[in-house]
Here is the input.
Amino acid sequence: MSDTPDNMEVVYHHRRQRVFLVLSGIFLGTLALLNVLGISRFLDMSFEVFGVNIPVVVAVGVLPYPATFICTDLISELFGEKKARDMVWVGVILNVWVIFLLWLGGILPGFENMDPKSGMPVPDEAGRLPVFFEIRELAFGAVTASMVAYMAAQFCDVRLFHFWKKLTGGKYLWIRNNASTMTSQMVDTTAVILITHFYAHALPVDPDAPIFGQLMTFIISGYVFKLVIAALDTVPIYLLVGWLRPYLGLKENEEARDEMIFG
Here is the structure.
């Protein structure tokens, strides 16, 4: 195919579709994964500084979460606020779909010994439920917490990203990338920890110790982890935007409109 303007526009059109599909796929796939992993395990990442122990406790579901903010920032930068918001809403639908499948898998007949009164499987000699039902119970708590936190954080991230973009006239990508992500992750982390504890009762807390300090440890630990990742992803964001703009045929600060993607 020759590099005439018309032919190149066809090439750019297909590239925009592919890139949007890849970013959306990574975002939604990561979202589904972290909701299943969720609070199934907590990682002790504590360390010492000058002999002082700094407690850092992070849920395993937090590990892939920063990737969702990279995807929303890239889509916000290259495809605009509307497409980023659309993807966030699809994420909400995905959360509902995950809950539905977990619910459906639990009510259909299986080979477990079921308690006729509760409708739940009978625990084994160690007091453990079958693996699916343990995952289901933890995922229900994680998905409920993440749905509330996810909507608040992602819409906050998208809105603040474009607020800073307008304020700076499209300059200083590092400001909008970091400012939007760091603020929205504080919203997300606080909401997830509080809902997980007070609604799902799934945090590994010591019932004999003051609860406020323990919750603050979880919130600060999760936020610091996300904060470090947000700072580290600035360079990849710059490199990806710098490469993707010419690859997608976009000018500086130009966003791919719907007709440029799907037209």
Notes: The helical segments are 5-37, 66-79, 81-107, 131-167, 173-200, 211-232, 234-248, 258-261.
